[in-house]
Amino acid sequence: Mxxxxxxxxxxxxxxxxxxxxxxxxx
Length: 26
Hints:
Helix content: over 70%
Shape: rod-shaped
């Protein structure tokens, strides 16, 4: 696998979690 591609996917997951947490905060 391409390590850079795995790193990008990991960053996207972090970003999605950050968005979900931001939506949960009023």
